[in-house]
Design brief:
The complex is a heterotrimer.
Chain A lengths: L3 H13 L5 E7 L6 E6 L8 E2 L22 E5 L1 H12 L8 E6 L13 H4 L11 E3 L12 H7 L3 H14 L5 H5 L24 H14 L9 H5 L7 H14 L29
Parallel strand pairs in A: 1-4, 4-5, 5-6
Antiparallel strand pairs in A: 1-2, 1-3
Chain B lengths: L26 E6 L3 H10 L8 E6 L7 H9 L4 E6 L10 H18 L7 E5 L5 H18 L13
Parallel strand pairs in B: 1-2, 1-3, 3-4
Helix pairs in contact in B: 1-4
Chain C lengths: L4 E4 L1 H14 L2 E7 L2 E7 L25 E10 L2 E6 L9 E4 L3 H14 L6 H8 L1 E6 L25 E5 L5 E5 L2 H9 L8 E3 L3 H13 L7 H8 L7 H5 L8 H5 L6 E8 L2 E8 L20 H20 L9 H5 L6 H11 L1
Parallel strand pairs in C: 2-6, 6-7, 7-8
Antiparallel strand pairs in C: 1-9, 1-10, 2-3, 4-5, 4-12, 8-9, 11-12
Classes of the chains: A alpha/beta, B alpha/beta, C alpha+beta.
């Protein structure tokens, strides 16, 4: 997958037609084969843009950034990124007419070791769902698969699951990088940070890590698009996707196969309801 | 479609630390103002006995219950949580409990997934006319949690009951 | 200080490590989820003293914990009772294995802050009671640039015992401080495999030369430091920080970042006051009670971090704050390297 030339062409065109103020894409780091998100304001810098299978980071995160706020933005989105863009649009966080979206028909990105990322192997929507212009050949929607990790964990005993998650919460260093890197976390003041709260959980203890990660994952339930920005950001390499994938699975199986942001105008699972929702777990 | 999340998770819990002989569980009961709270009132005025382990918090609607409340309760005093609201269709705010139902299911499953026994978090629909049902529900929840023993997982360090 | 250098082999080193772990309270890198963090260990099997720097957290939390209890309080009708906590598990006598030399340098730098206008007695106790055993890296990783900075990597005093894996398979063990010397006397190297050698410095020197030659990144430190101090107002900072998402990972894993916040965890009338890490990249880090924020936008916060690392600390304490370990670049989710950025700013402006 290498769409570098197409992206550069489009970006040049957008700048010459004066359609955008800033273009958000990827460029090489300059010292290894990894990529840095690039916020390009000068048409001369367009030649820095690249798009390969190392273009991992979900760029919709930059829409809450002061560099893009109230500006006309050109944005490159893969399938998963476009899902989060979809949700940001329905949640009124960005204005559609200020965006020029370049959708990618994504073939999956690779991690640092060069293997295809796990979420790409299970990807349901490889093609962008919101776009003004599509790059690549769309593959269409894929079938939803069961995440192997989730399957394995769910078949374990309660005590084993508990021990596993206790380890996760114990190794969390409470840097909140997961939250900052998440495109769907845009609150100006996060509930985890409210220092006047009587139950402030800012210290680095197992209990407060439990509180932070659980609250965070429940706020993202039905909204998480599985882009794995959080796992990329986690300095302790915690398998944070387990919480999200589990929620996604519960929601998929119980709430009419809901998947976050797949359809335009679709809201998160908790913003709607159905008479057919399960009721048997309630006395 | 293979059910993964809806498959019953294996939930056999042994008490982590043996409960002291005179231990009584603390259960946080979060009740909706219009049905369950009135229902619990009816239980009282009807002179029906139910276990005194429940500490009741009144909220305007079951959809006022943020999953955060459950997490915070489990982090501090509670050995178990009961959330109760109007029956489906009876919500004072027309659809509040439908929204709440979705959140309850996901919260319960997630807490179970990370290692809480599913009986620690329970939900019920109790209407204002169901005094006896409220007593039964509280008795059942108390019984379940007594079986499970005190909760020590992820407790805050300085909490005192 | 004239101390002996011990020469041993792999088996001797393993025996040395095992003896240390058996006889002392030892902390060493333990792997969890593919990342090594310093934890209390009881056997050599559960830790890896030679863990790769790319996957190892710094040892800073052993001296400046991610959360330290400062005090406990409780209040009732009769008044408020405040007591300092004495349950700090980190102030006992202990040995730290597998600390990298950049971490050790980080401690030297931190010492200056903690001995400055307020003497942090807990930190001092933790420092005095720890023996640091550190092995020199074999080669530089992608983001390492410790040799480019203003300190002498070869003769670093923060580590008490230095272990060098020589190029020919020999392992050199040498005490660098008095504490290290007494430690080596108390925990002798197995005489069967350990031989004393005074002319063996050459092997260590060779290893250092090979190590120093493996660096990809080289910085003209004096030039960068001089330039940066003059270009506070350059708009270039706005450009280089544009792709930063302000996630704070860099500050939390940095071996020298030392900003903290004070927070209370209270339940009813009792509470614990914690001192936990904070980061200058947080939007509310400089937010004042009246609502004024001197660093309201990202590039200013970012500039503060870069300038503090490369200019301000040097101005105040005469040493560079950044130790060149490259951890921030490794952990950055958007692959920003502070080396590249600072170099770029200093060379282009």
């Amino acid at each position: 997958m290498d769409y570098t030339n197409q992206i550069r062409e489009i970006a040049t065109r957008l700048f010459t037609e004066d359609k955008i103020d800033v273009f958000v894409g990827y460029r090489m780091t300059g010292f290894d084969d990894n990529q840095v998100p690039a916020l390009i304001r000068d048409p001369k810098e367009v030649s820095q843009l690249v798009f390969t299978d190392k273009s991992v980071f979900n760029l919709t995160n930059y829409l809450k950034n002061e560099h893009t706020r109230n500006k006309r933005v050109g944005l490159v989105v893969k399938g998963c990124d476009s899902r989060s863009l979809n949700l940001l649009l329905t949640e009124s966080q960005v204005k559609r007419d200020k965006l020029y979206v370049i959708g990618i028909a994504c073939e999956g990105v690779i991690d640092e070791a060069g293997n295809k990322m796990q979420n790409c192997m299970e990807c349901v929507v490889p093609d962008a769902v919101v776009y003004d212009e599509m790059v690549g050949t769309p593959k269409g929607k894929q079938g939803y698969q069961v995440n192997a990790d989730i399957h394995e964990l769910a078949s374990k005993e309660l005590v084993e699951r508990r021990a596993y998650f206790e380890e996760i919460f114990e190794n969390c260093i409470r840097c909140n990088a997961c939250r900052h890197s998440c495109p769907m976390c845009y609150c100006a003041k996060c509930c985890i940070d409210q220092e006047t709260s009587t139950l402030y959980n800012g210290a680095n203890t197992k209990s407060s890590a439990f509180h932070a990660l659980m609250t965070w994952s429940l706020h993202l339930a039905g909204r998480c698009v599985d882009c794995r920005n959080c796992e990329k950001a986690c300095p302790s390499h915690l398998p944070l996707h387990l919480l999200h994938k589990w929620n996604e699975r519960v929601i998929f199986e119980n709430f009419q196969e809901h998947l976050a942001g797949v359809q335009e105008g679709d809201r998160g699972a908790f913003y709607k309801y159905s008479m057919q929702d399960p009721n048997d777990f309630i006395m | 479609m293979e059910a993964v999340a809806n498959k019953q998770l294996v939930s056999i819990e042994k008490p982590e630390i043996a409960a002291p002989p005179d231990w009584e569980p603390v259960i946080i009961g979060i009740l909706c103002n219009w049905c369950s709270y009135a229902g619990s009132d009816l239980t009282g005025t009807s002179r029906i006995q139910y276990p005194p382990n429940i500490r009741i918090i009144r909220v305007p609607c079951s959809s006022r219950v943020d999953p955060w409340f459950l997490i915070k309760s489990l982090q501090t005093t509670a050995d178990g949580v009961l959330v109760s609201g109007c029956h489906p269709g009876d919500c004072h705010y027309i659809s509040g409990n439908y929204y709440a139902r979705r959140r309850f299911l996901v919260t319960k499953k997630l807490l179970n997934f990370v290692g809480f026994h599913e009986d620690r978090i329970q939900f019920s629909w109790v209407s204002a006319a169901e005094g006896p049902k409220f007593a039964q529900v509280v008795a059942k929840v108390t019984g379940d949690i007594k079986k499970l023993g005190p909760l020590h997982l992820y407790k805050k360090e300085n909490f005192e009951k | 200080m004239n101390v002996e250098t011990f020469v041993t082999d792999k088996a001797g080193l393993v025996k040395f490590y095992e003896a240390i772990i058996a006889n002392n309270e030892t902390y060493a890198p333990v792997e969890k989820f593919g990342k090594f963090d310093f934890k209390r260990v009881l056997t050599l099997a559960e830790c890896d003293p030679d863990s790769p720097i790319t996957k190892t957290m710094s040892a800073k939390p052993l001296f400046f914990p991610r959360s330290a209890k400062i005090l406990k309080y409780s209040a009732d009708a009769s008044g408020t009772d405040v007591k300092e906590t004495d349950e700090d598990p980190l102030t006992g006598k202990r040995v730290i294995l597998g600390m990298k030399h950049c971490d050790a340098r980080g401690l030297q730098v931190l010492d200056k802050v903690y001995n400055w206008d307020y003497i942090d007695s807990d930190y001092q106790k933790r420092r005095q009671n720890s023996v640091i055993i550190s092995s020199r890296c074999d080669k530089a990783e992608t983001h390492c640039f410790c040799t480019s900075l203003d300190y002498d990597v070869e003769n670093l005093d923060a580590m008490d015992v230095l272990i060098v894996h020589g190029l020919d398979g020999k392992i050199f063990i040498k005490a660098r401080t008095e504490k290290g010397e007494t430690f080596l006397k108390a925990n002798p190297i197995d005489p069967a495999s350990g031989i004393q050698h005074s002319a063996s410095e050459e092997g260590m020197k060779k290893q250092y030369d090979a190590f120093a030659a493996s660096f990809r990144l080289k910085m003209d430190y004096k030039n960068v430091n001089g330039k940066l101090s003059k270009i506070f107002d350059t708009p270039e900072f706005e450009n280089v920080s544009a792709s930063c998402i302000g996630c704070n990972t860099c500050a939390f894993i940095c071996p020298t970042c030392h900003c903290f916040k004070i927070s209370d965890e209270k339940i009813k009338d009792t509470g614990i006051r914690y001192k936990s890490y904070d980061s200058c990249n947080n939007g509310y880090f400089t937010l004042m009670a009246g609502g004024h924020n001197p660093r309201p936008v990202k590039y200013r916060r970012w500039r503060q971090r870069a300038m503090h690392k490369f200019v301000y600390y040097k101005e105040r304490f005469g040493e560079n704050l950044c130790v060149g370990c490259g951890r921030c670049a490794i952990s950055c989710p958007v692959n920003i390297s502070i080396f590249e950025v600072v170099n770029q700013v200093a060379t282009t402006v």
